[in-house]
Amino acid sequence: MKFHHVWGAFSRRSNAVLASCFYDNSLFLAAIGLVLGCTLPVSALAADLTLESAVAQAQAYDPWLDANRHRESSAVFRFQGAAELPDPKISLGLLSLPTDTFDLNQEAMTQLNVGLSQRFPRGSTLGLSQKKMEQNTQLQPVLRQERQAQTRLTVTKLWLVALKAQLSIELITENRRYFEQLRDIATSNYSYLLGGTRQQDLIQADVELTQLDDRTTELERMEQVALAQLMVLMTPVGEAARAFDAVAGELPVVTLDREIGSAPDDVIQALSVHPAVMARVRAIEIANTDTDLAKQMFKPEWAVNTSYGVRGNDAMGRNRADLISVGVSVDLPLFSSRRQTSELKAAYSDLEAVKSERLLVLRELSTRYESLTADLKALDKRRVLYTDSLLPGLSRSADAATNAYGVDNGRFSDVVQARIKALNAKLTALSLDIERQQTLANMNYLLTQFEAVTEQQP
């Protein structure tokens, strides 16, 4: 009975003090808000950071994506000129000039010669070169979508880390107030020699509060680190990173982007259109074209040349006929077949290497997906266990220990330990929720599909 009187008196007094502090602090903060609201920029009063806005800004300000678009533009420009013939060559010369008099009219062979030549590359080299440039153009959007999916995953993980720390701090802060009340009650009981409270109980209460403060400090560090990394990703290059105090304080609704069957063939088929796999498919197409280009090395290269020779008058003053020459030259790869054969074998080896890389990437994605699927099932089982059994049981145990201590039938240490276990269980349940969201984010990355889009080219 004495315990209940002490508890009631303490509760009424603490509630009055808290209400007074809240009222005074509210007036104070309201006054500060009115003053600062007129002077601070809008960005300083920004709302908490949401996951959707974080992902959108990180993708919008990613310098890698800008570089990729420039690479695509470069490939487009090269594609436009890849099928053109090499520039013709023009030559100008003075032929058979006599060295004794340097007279242009002395010898009939002396002439001013103007020549023009045009080279025709081997076989289908021009068409294949243009095809390769087009394939390079088609590769860039695939790489860009893979980068966007990676950015989305990275931002989601950082955002969830910050949210986990933030919600954990709120749980600890809420329970710290309860521990403070327990310590005050124990102090009061110890002063009035009630409930068998010992000095050791007071020391234990202070130790538990200190440990809670230490956990809060570590969680604050984790939150600030995650927020700082997020701000770097969300800020344009060359600008100062903006600051957010916190993320939106609710768990996001992260679900699978698409459902697939559980059979291995269904998983492989779904992962076959992932941008990382499609990038290797594009690389295989380019390697095939390189193989065709290597085959063209066995074909001859042609060139056509023509020249026009202007001759002066003869010694009698009569006109000499001008001369025209036309010729064709061909490159016969007869003595360098070893070089062409080596190039072709190298092209075939590169092609097989890229094919193996595609299979390796597909296997890695499949292994990750199966592992994440197993993790998700285990997490769901643990969440049900915590929600249905463990959390309610620990809450009842803590209440029972508190009630027993209130009627002088329990120890203070039992109350403290029961409350610590209940708090740890709540933090673990929160970790399970966050880990489940992270698992879904990883699975969504693996389930990303390449979508062919038509973009305006320069």
Task: Walk me through this protein's architecture.
The structure is a single chain. The protein has 3 domains: 1-45; 51-84 and 143-276 and 360-446, Outer membrane efflux proteins (OEP) (Up-down Bundle); 86-120 and 299-332. It has helices at residues 2-37, 51-60, 63-81, 125-191, 199-233, 264-271, 275-296, 337-406, 412-446, and strands at 89-95, 111-120, 301-310, 323-331. With 458 residues, it is α+β, with helices and mostly antiparallel strands. The chain has 9 helices and 4 strands; from the N terminus they run H-H-H-E-E-H-H-H-H-E-E-H-H. Strands 1-2-3-4 form a 4-stranded antiparallel beta sheet, with no helix packed on it. Helix 1 (2-37) packs across helix 4 (125-191) and helix 2 packs antiparallel against helix 4 (125-191). The longest helix has 70 residues, at 337-406.
Provide a brief overview of the structure:
The protein is of the alpha+beta class and 458 residues long.
